[in-house]
Specification:
Elements: H1 2-17, H2 19-25, H3 28-77, H4 84-125, E1 145-155, E2 166-176, E3 180-185, H5 191-199, E4 203-211, E5 215-218, E6 227-228, H6 229-234, H7 241-250, H8 254-259, E7 267-268, H9 277-291, E8 295-299, H10 307-318, E9 327-331, H11 335-340, E10 343-348, E11 351-356, H12 380-383, H13 420-430, H14 432-465, H15 472-518, H16 521-526, H17 529-571, H18 573-620, H19 622-627, H20 631-681, H21 691-705
Parallel strand pairs: 3-9, 3-10, 5-8, 8-9
Antiparallel strand pairs: 1-2, 1-4, 6-7, 10-11
Helix pairs in contact: 1-3, 1-17, 3-4, 3-15, 4-21, 13-15, 14-15, 14-17, 14-21, 15-17, 17-18, 17-21, 18-20, 20-21
Keywords: ATP-binding, Membrane, Nucleotide-binding, Repeat, Transmembrane, Transmembrane helix, Transport
GO molecular function, one term: ATP binding
Family: Belongs to the ABC transporter superfamily. ABCC family. Conjugate transporter (TC 3.A.1.208) subfamily.
Length: about 700
């Protein structure tokens, strides 16, 4: 079932990644059906587990009744006389034994889940760690070389024993320090793969790849963080105002940022959704330029900008004072960049077809590239125009509205009581008929159980006084009838609950998918994908497992307390009067705990979303993070989110223990009062039958101390 859940979440992630394309082509409904089919398969396995849990609930709820029937029935049939001390002492012991026995199936479920999770995590942890195959060793003595590749063959495969398909084949390349290298070639010729092999993202199976100095990387598809403009450019580095503003100017970003409400503190949406393609490329380039590395690997950074902006970036950033002494290796089709390169590398089918200066490049390689000598570069006057006159604001962006400043909306967290509409909606998802069946069967089930206890108390009372008018077989027959009724009603309640929970799980998921598919594009701009995935993973798990389990316990405790009140009212109204102070204390504790636990639960859900968002974001930009050697920064960032979530979870546990301790104290005091009343009432004005104190004590002990 975990594999199916992973598959569903993976498909949901694909849907979120490509939602705009799906909406454009009208494929969103087809993808929704695709997800629902995956969910249906998952629910099939979930149903098996739920119905097994229903059997566990059945045995858990009927065990006390069955134990009392079998034990006391055999005891009476063997000729022994039932007395209050024997009966209710046994019932107290039964309750002590039954609780751990009935918890055993859920313990087994937890152990199975833990075993599966441990095995999956262990399998992941035992995978090969990512490591760069290149290094600077004693053989790399030339201080004039930035890159030295000797007969290198690389593959994307990480399996050592696999018959790998070579992407880079027998490449030899030497790049001098401070040179500007243009890597050219047809689409699919291996340009991007060459950069990835230099980064160490590909596995070098033959030869060697040696780099001299630190690396900055700009991928072909820019990776943008969900955060402020400044955070995207600094990328964990200290703020240097001089270099920062020089970088913005060189990358033609100063005008764009000045138009944003909030300037460089304006928030960028998930994956840069509120930026144009050219802006994303320039932000990624600015991050690399600001980093101040020894070597820059640039993958077609000029393709997303127009010719004038590209010319500005080429002259001010790539060839300007910030990078002119750095080694720059750029995959490109830009004629201006090729004509300015110190060295040209022509790739063809994963091999270096030719390398050298632009003036030495033979015309036989590519007629297009041989036209570089005929290209008329922009005049110096044009290049030195003020940036305000450049078409920096491509794509017709004249201004950024004030709403764009808050492009990523903070996750809303409800306050106060849970609205009744929430409970009503869950009942609608489960089905009103099933809801009514569950409630009625739960009440009747508790009534049959209380009837069983009252009849047992009546039996003990009559036999203790020696005035019984019925035979032992009659008492046993009535006890057996109560037991059978209890069994039937418990079975109906358990399986109705399982069926209703499954029905609600299916309807909630379908409603989520429907809302997601029909949401406007603006919703995906303002909502990080990690927050949405949180709804389809952790929150949906709550609907599938946690909520039905908690509601089952809530219903059992509610009808149990209702049954106790009825029993106390029947046997002695005085008990209720004495319990009023305890009820007042309990209500105060309950109000305080509910308000606290409710907010903690909401904080738990809200604090989980940044974990998903951070993990997804880091996974998408793993190549860039490794290239910049920023692993520690992002690990620390993730740990911050995880620590906040753990604080919330820890607070929930502490609050639960706080309430449990006080309820146990209240339960002990109730037992004490029952015992005192039994002693005082035996010779006072309020005579109490033999079975009543034991019955009341058993109810109090089970419901307050046992829970």
């Amino acid at each position: 079932m975990m594999k199916l859940k992973d598959e569903r979440i993976r498909k949901t992630g694909e849907l979120l990644t490509n939602i705009r394309t799906l909406k454009m082509y009208g494929w969103d409904n087809w993808f929704a059906d695709w997800l629902k089919e995956t969910r249906a398969t998952e629910v099939t396995h979930l149903a098996t587990r739920k119905y097994l849990d229903a059997w566990c609930v059945f045995f858990w709820a009927t065990t006390p009744t069955l134990f009392s029937l079998c034990t006391f029935g055999l005891f009476a049939l063997m000729g022994h006389q039932l007395d209050a001390a024997t009966v209710f002492t046994c019932l107290a012991l039964f309750n002590s034994l039954i609780s751990p026995l009935n918890s055993f199936p859920w313990v087994i479920n937890g152990l199975i889940d833990a075993f599966i999770s441990t095995r999956r995590v262990s399998k992941f942890l035992c995978c090969l760690e990512h490591s760069r195959d290149f290094s600077i060793d004693s053989g790399f003595t030339s201080e004039d070389l930035a890159v030295c590749v000797e007969d290198a063959s690389c593959t994307w495969s990480s399996n050592v024993e696999e018959d790998y398909n070579l992407t880079i084949k027998q490449v030899s390349l030497r790049v001098p320090k401070g040179s500007f290298v243009a890597v050219i070639g047809e689409v699919g010729s291996g340009k991007t793969s060459l950069l990835n092999s230099l980064l160490g993202e590909m596995r070098c199976v033959h030869g060697s790849i040696l780099l001299n100095g630190s690396v900055a990387y700009v991928p072909q598809v820019p990776w943008i963080l969900s955060g402020t403009v400044r955070e995207n450019i600094l990328f964990g580095k200290p703020f240097d105002s001089k270099r920062y503003f020089e970088t913005l100017s060189a990358c033609a970003l100063d005008v764009d940022i000045s138009l944003m409400v909030g300037g460089d503190m304006a928030c960028i949406g998930d994956k840069g959704v509120n930026l144009s393609g050219g802006q994303r490329a320039r932000f990624a380039l600015a991050r690399a330029v600001y980093h101040g590395s020894d070597m820059y690997l640039l993958d077609d950074v000029l393709s997303a900008v127009d010719s004038q902006v590209g010319c500005w970036i080429l002259q001010r950033a790539l060839l300007g004072p910030l990078l002119n002494k750095k080694t720059r290796v750029m995959c490109t089709h830009n004629i201006q960049a090729i004509s300015c390169a110190d060295m040209i590398v022509v790739m063809d089918k994963g091999k270096v077809n030719w390398s050298g200066s632009v003036t030495d490049m033979p015309k036989s390689i590519s007629p297009t590239f041989s036209l570089t000598n005929e290209f008329d570069m922009s005049s110096p006057n044009h290049l030195t125009k003020r940036k305000e006159t450049l078409s920096i604001k491509e794509d017709g962006v004249d201004e950024i509205s004030e709403a764009a400043a808050d492009i990523v909306k903070l996750e809303e967290r409800k306050e106060g009581r849970v609205e009744m509409m929430v409970y009503r909606n869950y009942a609608v998802f489960s089905g009103w008929f099933i809801t009514i069946v569950i409630l009625v069967s739960a009440v009747l089930m508790q009534a049959s159980r209380n009837g069983n206890d009252l009849w047992l108390s009546y039996w003990v009372d009559k036999t203790g006084k020696g005035v019984s008018h019925y035979s032992t077989s009659f008492y046993l027959m009535v006890l057996c009838i109560f037991c059978i009724i209890n069994l039937i009603l418990t079975l109906v309640r358990a399986f109705s609950f399982a069926f209703g929970g499954l029905k609600a799980a299916v309807h909630v998921h379908n409603a989520l998918i429907s809302k997601l598919i029909n949401a406007p594009t603006q919703f995906f701009d303002q909502t990080p994908s990690g927050r949405i995935l949180n709804r389809f993973s952790s929150d949906l798990y709550t609907i599938d497992d946690s909520l039905p389990f908690i509601l089952n316990i809530l219903l059992a405790n509610f009808v149990g307390l209702l049954g106790i009140i009825v029993v106390l009212s029947y046997v002695q109204v005085l008990f209720l009067l004495l319990l009023l102070p305890f009820w007042y204390i309990y209500s105060k504790l309950q109000v305080f705990y509910r308000s606290t636990s409710r907010e903690l639960r909401r904080l738990d859900s809200v604090s989980r979303s940044p974990i998903y968002a951070s993990f997804t974001e880091t996974l998408d930009g793993s190549s860039t993070i490794r290239a910049f050697k920023s692993e520690e920064h992002f690990v620390g960032r993730f740990i911050e989110h995880l620590t906040l979530y753990q604080r919330t979870s820890y607070s929930e546990i502490i609050a639960s223990l706080w309430l449990s301790l006080r309820l146990q104290l209240l339960g002990s005091m109730i037992v004490l009062f029952v015992a005192v009343m039994a002693v005082l009432g035996s010779g006072g004005n309020f005579p109490i039958s033999f079975g009543t104190p034991g019955l009341v004590r058993n109810c109090s002990f089970h419901k307050y101390i046992g829970k």
